[in-house]
């Protein structure tokens, strides 16, 4: 399968052609100064040549397309075109097939990214017109960060105003953070869903991301790419009060502030010699104080974020450096990685100096052998990341095209607890065994006659159903609403994954038990057998989308965890808040969609487990 990637800036167009099966890049080029004086094109590593025809994005693409297509093997075609789109807003949480509706939605999001989305869209329109047979896929910079919890998305502003204007933290550089995370996990020989990473993309734009078990949970860029780290010419974090003060003192207007923060700040503003770190490092070595300060401020900011993100995730297994600076500047890595010993991260100075990453040797370890937390340099490739996403959507479309609508019964799990034998005895008396009230849909599981009272720091909830049989770890599954009622900050977790979760007090007729941990909001999930998994084309711990249709309202639940075991029966479990959000009543089912725009909404009878726990 051959994938073309197109990345349009306001006056530029980058394109690359990949053979997805072999992973090789067949061609790449870059057109500059589109619609300006003396546009030019640079093919591969060759020198730039004039390209007078590039009067707009469409004309530019039309002019270079024959060169790109010439790199295809005899008789081959472009199966999919992956387009980089900077802002997906609240609307897009993953790559999507582009149709007219998606095009309109990208256009509507231009207010959030006025410099980027219109240019991205120009590329989309040009390519759809010139390659009408191909599948066009939009890959959003923001999508990887759609998993940010609300607390990390939200600015402390009046929420009415914020939601009216879409003012919240979205995060950017998604394809790069996703790509280097995956490569780092491969290098660690771990599943991405088992590791906590901090990825530092340090190029002209810079951002750091906390990737907790495969999900972005915090990132340094916010509503726009201006927040966070010091960048080539962007300031990153700055006290908003300083802007107010500058506006008053210097009489600066909005455009002047925009220009100041986006183009005249960062390394360029601090050093006074431009944004290229190579020049700054050279001057600093010669004793230039401004350049020395630029390097110190840059490194300090990154180190500060690393510490913060380790705290957000409660630890970190690897810190990844990428981007032009992260991949090439041993000096900057050295400064950033100082005093990270408290995280178990020890830099090996020789390895750091010698580190070299390329497309064929993508990962270099720069920590000592005994370092608990790995320090890695990983070569990013945003074009390839976009190609991988586009290929994935193309494969899914082909797989789902012929498949019948595969339906999944949806059940609502009310709050409940799982207990160990020891805790059962302490709550209900020595030798007590749970008594089965009635069986649940998952084979062997049952609702017990026993109930328990949950006592949180703030309030209690009585009569919470105990589910049997007894387990090896206690687990209390509550909804977001319960969380606030009890006064507990519970993480969203897969069942059984209770490490580092908060505890509470359980009260039964014979005694009380302080749980040290175990309170979670269950990650919405689908139980299925290996045979089901085969039919759906998914595997254990995949994360998918499920479209649910009820009498009242249709909704797509993103971020649904797949659990596969021969012991399971096909069923999706959501909590009461989620059931209410979809206004589900008896008779709803879901259909696996995996990626937006592909799939089926269904409406057929189903069984509910609302009664499986009381309250
Ligand atoms: P973009 O964000 O535009 O993709 P890059 O990721 O290519 O940018 O990063 C560009 C930055 O990388 C520049 O600031 C450049 O100074 C820096 N850089 C590249 N090579 C080196 C090097 N050997 N030493 C220090 N900095 C470098």
Structural features:
single chain; alpha/beta; Nucleotidyltransferase, domain 5; Barwin-like endoglucanases; 8-stranded mixed beta sheet; 19 helices; disordered C terminus
SSE blueprint and pairings:
Layout: E1 2-8, E2 13-19, E3 24-32, E4 40-43, E5 49-50, H1 57-69, E6 78-85, E7 96-97, H2 100-108, H3 117-130, E8 135-140, H4 150-153, H5 159-164, H6 174-188, E9 196-202, E10 206-212, E11 215-219, H7 240-250, H8 254-263, H9 266-271, H10 277-285, H11 289-313, E12 318-322, H12 323-328, H13 330-336, H14 349-354, E13 363-365, E14 374-378, H15 382-402, E15 407-413, E16 416-418, H16 421-428, E17 436-439, E18 446-455, E19 460-468, E20 475-477, H17 480-486, E21 492-493, E22 505-508, E23 511-514, E24 519-522, E25 525-528, H18 530-536, E26 543-549, E27 554-564, E28 571-575, H19 576-581, E29 589-592
Parallel strand pairs: 1-6, 6-8, 9-12, 12-14, 15-28, 16-19, 20-24, 21-24, 25-27
Antiparallel strand pairs: 1-2, 2-3, 3-4, 4-5, 7-8, 9-10, 10-11, 13-14, 15-29, 16-20, 17-18, 18-19, 18-22, 22-23, 25-28, 26-27, 26-29
